[in-house]
């Protein structure tokens, strides 16, 4: 070790760099994803620094996968590099149970009760709040009104997956590079599996039964996956296996998709003429229903939390309270316009008439999130929670592997049956390795 | 007749030489071009070659991330790591080239084999070591790691250059009473300078482009350009323009530097092949 | 060539005198590399015997060899091993083969040769992450990509490269980065070839192909060894290109060993399993090193 220090001193001397302490007093390091809403937060954070001159903010903005890996490593090894982390409602309860997150008790002015109940519940563990929601999303259907009109179709108020498939067939025009349906195909538990799980839920499929026996080879899974593969193969864009949320957003915004079923957060971007070529042609509907019809529904809340390893917990809490407050929403509206305010977290946002006017999808999204229920009832009772994920630590491993298998069916390397069999065996292995299933 | 063939050959060579060069360079050209398109134009199909250039993507990139901070870190880390590695490698290569023992060959190959393991296999230990020595997210920490990953190749390259220096020249110096230190600094280094220069250039390029350690061992203070790119690789919405602009910014310094030093780089990369 | 004999290192006198000094000069580099490789290696070995999952601290304790068992019985492991070798071999063939031909081409006099050379060498300076993003989004994207537009322009259906030929596509992208490096080194070697030698061969009536086979190729042996050595070192650990373009998929079609370990250790946070993979990779690296010694290093006259 002393050798290391000598060399370190040497390099230090040579490069003329200063050994910068990662934790200068009053400096908060904030780790966040490079999504649009977070970029706005970063731009507006100078206001926070103005109001709190003794707190300086240091930003680490990374792509979702890289961020998740960095934050998890930091927090699990208790390094304390980050004072504020951006995580979702998959992580919050699991990390809270492991004692990694600081319990939050915002004051009365913050008005916790203004946060939509479904979102608040998702960030609460054992009755304690561990993260504040920055924005939240559920799932919905976007479609192109002009293409539907041309084909003489109307989107029903509550579409089914069979109907969606027929519509997609009719509006697909491959020579004109318009593809009837766009869905996530990029492997990853937060990418294609988020969608496939939602699809599976409404087909009555589920991951495990009460004794943690994997159910991936069930009929319901087979039907759901068959729908997914055939829809994307026949009516989907080429390159579907590399399309995640962002790629599909770009495809839809540039006029290449007829129907797109994905997160509600895309609304603000698709209706923004600066970012979308189809801003005046977007229609929206609820997420389609499958044969089972019920089932848990997608809810994701990008939230800000303070790791217990942070050395500046108090300042960090001041910041996250500010970034998720009503005042912040107003600040975004003043500077950037109502259409881009963080959605899905506060009832008060939806009560603002300007927002309802600027965002035609507002009440629709509000309803989707209010009724989103990650604890919804599956066909058979289940020992876990979560709609587009399974709320256990092992799920990142299982979701990553199954996501790859699903992508392999899209590219034609495997049939649906082969894929499900392989998924079943890899999930069984993971469970055995973690000791959950004996 | 002979002259005719010669001319047609020359035309063919010219066409082929330029054709291949343009084909290989095309992706870079296209990246630079796309950086000057608006986001909507960047995804137009078919792709546009003629368009109204705009700086909007660049403006947004600069607004979102402090480019100069990342560049500064990259420069400091790359230069520091290169200099550090040379200081360790020159004596080692000297010793191997001029004072070999039975173990020299084995030592050299062992050094090279340390470079063949996937860094990810030892990430957790290195991460913990860096944390415990407070070197996480410091330029020093990243510099040390970069230096160590490149050290084996640098030793080997220098070794091959040093062996090109005719031993009699060094011997002659020693006859005149030069010490080893003088022998190394006054006789050997000037002779091997082109080799050392291209080794340094290669090391700089490799450090500049190193992506794995720089992403995992830094967060903000010491984050280099590879981390800068990671924040643009798929932002929400249309991103081709911003991605291209950010990529152009990240590679421009080393690309220009490479073009300028290309002759020097080539001159030194002989690995003892010139006799 | 005959100079080799002359340069056989270290005349006896200085070798005898300098044993201690030689060791002293070598010592710092060797020591620091020893620390650098042995300390993490020891820790990796230790972790590979533990139940160690970052996101599940409830799981701990000694695991014996179960991490190895899970790794070696995983069907993905063999796939990834095979992919690693296909990738290394493919890129080596493309870059050495193409590099040799290009080196001869750019050794010829032609108009603007200097600029053409600079253009050819340029991809080597591009970060792996950037070149992967560039190829994935701007070149090969089945809708917006330039290559797809070209195929559409001549009436073909664009190929969905990353889904249909994932490993081949990754190989092409990596080869694009490393071909210039091969050209750089091989061109230097071709240029060092005595023009008198070439002239003499031409006088003897040797055609261009005969010249290439009997004069140029033998001369390049050493330079090719250098390219193979350095590229192998980097190609064994290809990571950024895979992670950006295919994330190892679809399925495991483009997962190499480095990516498999990454996926275990940092996507699934299974440090124990990832470490077991690391140990296996270290063993493989040493096998490759021995192999390189046998075939390549001899050529290098180490």
UniProtKB/TrEMBL annotation, chain A:
User: What InterPro entries does the record point to?
Assistant: Bact_solute-bd_prot1 (IPR050490), SBP (IPR006059)
| Record keywords | Signal
Key word Repeat present in the record? no
Hey, what's the signal peptide range on this chain?
1-24
Main location (coarse class): periplasm
Q: Where in the cell is it found?
A: Periplasm
What CDD domains does the database record attribute to this sequence? PBP2_TMBP_like
What PANTHER family does the entry give? ARABINOSE-BINDING PROTEIN-RELATED, DIACETYLCHITOBIOSE BINDING PROTEIN DASA
The record's similarity note reads: Belongs to the bacterial solute-binding protein 1 family.
User: Any idea what this protein is called?
Assistant: Periplasmic mannitol/sorbitol binding protein
From TrEMBL, chain B:
> Is the keyword Cell membrane assigned to this protein?
yes
Leader sequence range is none
Q: Which InterPro entries match?
A: BP-dep_ABC_trans_perm, MetI-like, MetI-like_sf
Nucleotide-binding recorded as keyword? yes
The membrane topology of this protein is: Multi-pass membrane protein
Specify the species. Answer: Gluconobacter thailandicus NBRC 3257
* CDD domains in the record: TM_PBP2 (cd06261)
Q: Which family does it belong to?
A: Belongs to the binding-protein-dependent transport system permease family.
Q: Which GO terms describe its molecular function?
A: ATP binding
Stretches assigned to the ABC transmembrane type-1 domain: 71-261
Report keywords, A-Z. Answer: ATP-binding, Cell membrane, Membrane, Nucleotide-binding, Transmembrane, Transmembrane helix, Transport
Q: What is the annotated localization of this protein?
A: Cell membrane
Bilayer-crossing residues are: 12-33, 75-96, 108-130, 142-162, 183-206, 239-260
Q: What is this protein called?
A: Mannitol/sorbitol ABC transporter ATP-binding protein
TrEMBL record, chain C:
Q: Kindly give the membrane topology term recorded for this protein.
A: Multi-pass membrane protein
- Which keywords fit this entry according to its UniProt record? Cell membrane, Membrane, Transmembrane, Transmembrane helix, Transport
SUPFAM superfamilies to which the protein is assigned, alphabetical: MetI-like
This protein's source sits in the domain of life called: Bacteria
What InterPro entries does the entry give? MetI-like (IPR000515), MetI-like_sf (IPR035906)
Family assignment?
Belongs to the binding-protein-dependent transport system permease family.
Please identify the protein, giving its name as recorded. Answer: Mannitol/sorbitol ABC transporter permease
| Organism for this UniProt entry | Gluconobacter thailandicus NBRC 3257
């Amino acid at each position: 070790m002393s050798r290391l220090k000598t060399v370190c001193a040497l390099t230090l001397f040579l490069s003329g760099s200063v050994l910068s302490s990662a934790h200068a007093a009053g400096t908060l390091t904030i780790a966040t994803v490079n999504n649009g809403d977070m970029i706005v937060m970063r731009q507006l954070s100078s206001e926070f620094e103005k109001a709190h001159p003794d707190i300086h903010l240091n930003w680490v903005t990374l792509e979702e996968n890289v961020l998740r890996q960095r934050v998890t490593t930091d927090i699990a090894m208790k390094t304390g590099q980050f004072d504020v982390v951006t995580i979702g409602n998959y992580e919050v309860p699991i990390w809270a149970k492991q004692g990694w997150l600081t319990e939050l008790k915002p004051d009365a002015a913050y008005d916790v009760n203004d946060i939509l109940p479904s979102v608040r519940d998702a960030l609460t563990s054992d009755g304690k709040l561990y993260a504040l929601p920055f924005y939240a999303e559920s799932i919905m259907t976007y479609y192109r009104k002009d293409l539907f009109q041309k084909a003489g179709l109307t989107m029903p108020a509550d579409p089914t997956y069979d109907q969606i498939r027929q519509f997609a067939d009719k509006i697909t025009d491959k020579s004109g590079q318009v593809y009837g349906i766009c869905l996530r195909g990029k492997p990853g538990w937060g990418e294609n599996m988020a969608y496939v799980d939602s699809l599976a839920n409404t087909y009555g499929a589920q991951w495990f039964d009460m004794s943690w026996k994997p159910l991936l080879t069930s009929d319901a899974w087979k039907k759901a996956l068959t729908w997914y593969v055939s829809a994307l193969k026949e009516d989907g864009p080429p390159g579907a296996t590399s399309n995640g949320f962002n790629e599909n957003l770009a495809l839809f915004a540039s006029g290449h998709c007829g129907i797109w079923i994905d997160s509600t957060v895309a609304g603000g971007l698709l209706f923004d003429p600066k970012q979308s070529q189809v801003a005046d042609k977007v229609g929206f509907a609820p997420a389609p229903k499958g044969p089972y019809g019920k089932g848990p529904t997608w809810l994701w809340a990008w939230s800000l939390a303070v790791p217990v390893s942070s050395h500046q917990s108090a300042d960090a809490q001041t910041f996250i309270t500010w970034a998720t407050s009503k005042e912040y929403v107003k600040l975004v509206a003043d500077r950037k316009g109502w259409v881009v305010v963080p959605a899905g977290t506060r009832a008060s946002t939806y009560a603002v008439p300007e927002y309802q006017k600027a965002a035609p999808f507002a009440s629709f999204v509000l309803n989707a999130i209010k009724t989103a229920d990650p604890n919804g009832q599956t066909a058979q009772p289940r020992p876990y929670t979560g709609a587009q994920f399974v709320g256990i630590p092992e799920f990142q491993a299982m979701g990553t592997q199954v996501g790859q298998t699903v992508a392999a069916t899209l590219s034609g390397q495997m049939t649906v049956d082969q894929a499900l069999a392989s998924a079943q065996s890899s999930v069984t292995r993971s469970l055995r390795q973690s000791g959950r299933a004996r | 007749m002979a002259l005719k063939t010669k001319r047609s050959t020359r035309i063919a060579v010219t066409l082929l030489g330029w054709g291949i060069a343009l084909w290989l360079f095309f992706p870079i050209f296209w990246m630079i071009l796309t950086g000057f398109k608006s986001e909507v134009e960047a995804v137009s199909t078919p792709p546009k070659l003629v368009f109204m250039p705009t700086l909007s993507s660049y403006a947004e990139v600069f607004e979102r991330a402090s480019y100069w901070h990342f560049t500064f870190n990259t420069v400091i880390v790359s230069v520091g790591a290169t200099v550090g590695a040379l200081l360790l490698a020159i004596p080692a290569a000297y010793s191997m080239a001029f004072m070999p023992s039975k173990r020299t060959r084995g030592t050299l190959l062992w050094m090279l084999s340390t470079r063949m393991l996937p860094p990810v296999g030892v990430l957790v230990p290195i991460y913990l070591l860096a944390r415990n020595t407070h070197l996480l997210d410091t330029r020093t920490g990243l510099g040390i790691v970069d230096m160590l990953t490149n050290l084996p190749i640098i030793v080997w390259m220098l070794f091959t250059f040093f062996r090109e220096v005719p031993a009699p020249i060094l011997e002659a110096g020693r006859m005149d009473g030069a010490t080893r230190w003088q022998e190394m600094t006054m006789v050997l280094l000037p002779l091997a300078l082109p080799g050392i220069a291209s080794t340094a250039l290669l090391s700089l390029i490799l450090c500049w482009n190193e992506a794995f350690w720089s992403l995992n061992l830094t967060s903000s203070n010491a984050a280099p350009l590879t981390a800068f790119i990671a924040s643009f690789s798929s932002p929400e919405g249309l991103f081709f323009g911003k991605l291209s602009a950010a990529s152009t910014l990240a590679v421009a310094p080393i690309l220009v530097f490479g073009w300028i030093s290309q002759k020097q780089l080539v001159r030194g990369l002989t690995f003892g092949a010139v006799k | 060539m005959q100079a080799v004999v002359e340069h056989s290192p270290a005349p006896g006198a200085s070798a005898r005198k300098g044993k201690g000094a030689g060791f002293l000069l070598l010592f710092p580099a060797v020591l620091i590399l020893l620390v650098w490789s042995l300390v993490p290696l020891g820790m990796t070995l230790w972790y590979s015997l533990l139940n160690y999952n970052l996101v599940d601290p409830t799981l701990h304790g000694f695991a014996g060899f179960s991490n190895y068992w899970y790794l070696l019985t995983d069907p993905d492991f063999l796939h990834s091993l095979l992919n690693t070798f296909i990738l290394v071999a493919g890129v080596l063939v493309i870059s050495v083969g193409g590099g040799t031909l290009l080196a001869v081409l750019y050794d010829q006099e032609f108009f603007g040769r200097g600029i053409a050379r600079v253009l050819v060498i340029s991809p080597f300076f591009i970060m792996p992450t950037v070149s992967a993003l560039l190829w994935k989004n701007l070149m090969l994207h089945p809708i917006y990509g330039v290559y797809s537009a070209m195929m559409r322009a001549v009436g073909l259906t664009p190929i969905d490269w990353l889904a249909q030929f994932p490993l081949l596509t990754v190989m092409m992208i990596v080869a694009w980065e490393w071909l210039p490096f091969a050209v750089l080194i091989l061109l230097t070697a071709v240029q060092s070839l005595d023009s008198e030698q070439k002239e003499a061969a031409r006088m003897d009536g040797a055609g261009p192909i005969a010249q290439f086979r009997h004069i140029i190729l033998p001369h390049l042996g050493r330079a090719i060894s250098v390219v193979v050595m350095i590229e192998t070192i980097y190609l064994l650990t290809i990571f950024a290109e895979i992670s950006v373009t295919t994330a190892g998929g679809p399925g495991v079609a483009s997962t190499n060993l480095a990516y498999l370990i990454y996926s275990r250790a940092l996507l699934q946070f299974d440090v124990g399993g990832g470490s077991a993979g690391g140990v296996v990779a270290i063993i493989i690296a040493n096998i490759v090193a021995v192999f390189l010694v046998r075939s390549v290093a001899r050529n290098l006259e180490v």
